[in-house]
Design goal:
16-stranded antiparallel barrel, 1 helix, mainly beta, 25 strands, disordered N terminus
């Protein structure tokens, strides 16, 4: 009899949950912890899979074998998020996963935490205080990019100036404050940069004269902030990561400005061989517009433009390679280095822009729609005698919003070499390109 009673109670409970109008299992992996839906716990997942053809930089080698070109398949990102509105005032967030795993990566790469934060809302939306390992960064909009809704193939790495040098994929340990006052949105943070000695990829050390490098002294605190005014629809600031495209569902027009500052982050030798410490200083302004043209059809345009002044000390330059396709060079190597590396970040001024047009939502009937895009970097750096000009042209096939998306992208990058006068100039006839097909799956 006892077992029968328990069985009947279980049936009644399951039926009550299924029939109840306050069913807490909705919106995917989101469980509501209160009947008014104010408290919840939510989980998401994302994978970005690349199939790529790379025209490698001159002199590139793989395990000592010269390779002019490479075809590879890799995992650009695998991410999992768990977040919870614990109480009316308390919000918890964590993100973990891997980045940039290809055939040249160390095997059995482990998942690691990107974010672990807790925050307390002081005055509704006007002031929230939080801390932990976070990406509440300054300087520009895409210094904190949302990886699940990137407009193009990849996020604007040129705006992640300290990525994996003094941070963990743009995250640092620290505290932050954020809020909204009508159309004004702000974030400020104070963080502990990671010592450059702990970087996964060795950081160049002090050598020569009048050329700046990251200092190996104990790092000072870093201060960052980003402020924007939102003229149309308001964007969420629950998470630090900014959206690349709303796919015709909102009307956004924002103007923003930001900064980053760290005392004695850099150093260099003078002509007299004295070692001088200098701060890391960054300042940026940008504009973001994303709006549907017809609300029902959800066709839309997206445009973004930014200007950033980077000051890492005299003549600082850094080559960046995304999921590099080679691991060595021979005697004919360029200044760029191996694989797909390019001198992307340095002391000087950077203009970054992107634009896209989203066709109506049912362009391909039940198979979604298309979104062609272009993006480009134009940078004038002290160390280089010619500007860095890098551009992408691509097409997103939006199958099911951002949850299922196929992207085809062509990128062209410059090749730099040192001439007989010691100047670093672009070799105009030696540009290199890559073609990437990415499939993004997200829940």
């Amino acid at each position: 009899m006892k077992k029968i009673i328990i069985f009947l109670c279980a049936i009644i409970s399951v039926n009550a949950i299924a029939q109840s109008p306050s069913n807490r299992f909705k919106e995917g992996l989101k469980i509501y912890l209160s009947d008014d839906s104010a408290r919840y716990i939510k989980a998401t997942g994302l994978a970005q899979i690349w199939a790529r053809y790379e025209d490698n930089n001159p002199g590139s080698t793989i395990s000592g074998t010269p390779k002019k070109e490479t075809f590879d398949v890799g995992l650009r990102r695998v991410r999992f998020q768990i977040m919870s509105q614990v109480t009316k005032h308390i919000f918890f967030y964590t993100q973990f996963g891997i980045n940039s795993l290809n055939s040249l990566s160390a095997r059995k790469t482990g998942l690691f935490f990107h974010d672990v934060t807790g925050e307390y809302s002081m005055f509704k939306n006007m002031l929230t205080i939080g801390g932990g390992l976070s990406g509440w960064n300054g300087t520009s909009r895409y210094s904190s990019s949302g990886v699940g809704n990137i407009l193009g193939l990849d996020l604007p790495v040129v705006q992640e100036s300290t990525n994996d040098v003094t941070d963990q994929f743009v995250r640092k340990l620290g505290i932050y404050a954020k809020g909204k006052i009508k159309g004004f949105d702000y974030r400020v943070s104070v963080s502990n940069p990671f010592p450059v000695q702990n970087a996964l990829t060795p950081v160049a050390t002090l050598s020569g004269t009048n050329t700046s490098y990251y200092s190996t002294k104990a790092p000072e605190l870093q201060y960052q902030g980003y402020f924007m005014y939102q003229f149309l629809d308001k964007e969420s600031n629950q998470l630090p990561y900014m959206t690349g495209s709303y796919l015709g569902k909102k009307r956004i027009f924002n103007i923003g400005t930001g900064f980053a500052y760290q005392k004695d982050a850099m150093w260099h030798r003078t002509a007299a061989l004295d070692t001088v410490s200098t701060p890391l200083q960054q300042f940026g302004v940008d504009l973001f517009y994303d709006s549907y043209l017809n609300k029902d059809k959800q066709n839309a345009i997206t445009a973004y433009a930014s200007f950033i002044n980077y000051d890492f000390g005299p003549n600082y330059i850094r080559n960046v390679a995304i999921m590099n396709t080679a691991n060595g060079t021979n005697s004919s190597a360029s200044f760029n280095g191996s694989g797909n590396a390019v001198p992307l970040i340095g002391t000087g001024q950077v203009v970054y822009a992107q634009a896209a047009y989203l066709f109506k939502k049912d362009l391909l009937k039940s198979h979604g729609t298309l979104q062609p895009y272009v993006s480009g970097v134009y940078a004038n750096y002290q160390k280089l005698k010619d500007p860095v000009m890098l551009y992408d042209i691509g097409l997103n096939w939006i199958m099911s919003g951002q949850n299922s998306k196929l992207s085809l992208d062509y990128q062209s990058r410059p090749i730099f070499n040192v001439d007989t006068n010691g100047d670093i100039r672009e070799t105009k006839s030696a540009r290199r390109g890559q073609v990437v097909l990415q499939y993004q799956l997200m829940f």
